[in-house]
Design goal:
Number of strands: 23
Strand content: 25-35%
Structural class: alpha+beta
Radius of gyration: 28 Å
Shape: elongated
Largest sheet: 4 strands, antiparallel
Length: 471
Amino acid sequence: MGGCVSGDLKGGKQAIGGTLHRPMDPPPNNGGGGHNDAVDFFFRSRGLHALTTQIELALSASKLLDRDVTSKSDPMAVVYFKKTNGSLEEVGRTEVILNSLNPSWIQKITVSYHFEILQPILFQIYDVDTKYHNVPVKSLKLEDQQFLGEASCYLSEIVTKRNRMVTLNLQNRNGHGNLRNLGTLTIHTEETATSRTAIELAFRCSNLDNKDLFSLSDPFLRISRIAESGAPIPICKTEVVNNNLSPVWKPLHLSMQQFGSKDSPLVIECFDFNSSGNHVLIGKVQKSVSDLEKVHIERSGVNFISASHRGREKVLKGQLFVERFLEKEQYSFLDYISSGFELNFMVAVDFTASNGNPRNPDSLHYIDPSGRLNSYQQAIMEVGEVIQFYDSDRRFPAWGFGGRTPAGTISHCFNLNGNPNGVEVEGVEGIMSAYAAALHNVALAGPTLFGQVVNTAAQIAGWSPDRSSRN
């Protein structure tokens, strides 16, 4: 079985943990309470502060059950938050480690820690079946995998430890004991770094020792950061290059969050890949990011070392080269906002008959005399109240579609405010007023066709920033 990540390589040969995260990529799922720039802006605009801290969970396990017949289990960890109603909300998944009963996962799980509340967290371990070895982990159906054990605790139990690490005994589902030892799970937490610094690295090697008998080694690099406790924490690995003693790997992208600082020691290990999971260490070097930058500038190679049988270090002829070293800044969503980037909130309301007669309480368009908002009003308010802060003039295009207008024709893109000369309204309140007025002037019709609205919105998005000429 192999590592379940996307890519061209199969059977655990893919690169993990060193991919580029674009500035506008969505944040990871972190249990519904994690960091979000838009939410933070929303709080600050009201003089409020969310009392949260972003942390990363690094997971490792030992002495897992072996569920496979001809090989070892291929474990993956899944992390959940337990809600107050007892339901589970998935936070994230690790990669799959090939043939290992003592895995140390590279993929970290990012969560938001709230010190003022109890946050029950659940960890489950699965053995991923061979036929799913090339399926992305997010797409895996857990019911198709073999359950290896679970453990739970409060998040505060981990972060309050002096070494921010806790080891839990794995149990059967729902915390039931077992006569068999299911192994242990170790969770190590670290606060997410706030630095924007990131580096792009490209490695190559030359003259590696050959560890295979009938072919050449299949080398890959694994990079680990040394934690405060002295233990190495894997942060990424390259893809495997088949049958090559002078491999060149694809570039890696590492954030300060991953490597700590430019002076923090990194252990770079070169392994010969084996599908059995028993990868053979070819050699290793220990260098900081600053050291790697110097190696790149000097165009020099660093010799790998290995431990001899007597515990002494042996310098090998194989060398590591840094072909590319590029330091860059990663920009957040708010960086774009503060530099003048704006969002324009556009609204299109469905006036097709499938919504139900607005006079009936079960209609999605029903205006409740008590003031309770219908589904459309709720959506407009909840989205609009956040988005409106990112539009300086707070003028929003608003349309309707699928309704019969006062002119007697069915339109699939009409101005919600009824003004033929202007589609924009003032603020969220303007949208709400235009919608309420349209319900009195537009009859529900059909069919549901929103292509015209999408095309019109796309045209506006492609226009000049000068919006004074818009209709």
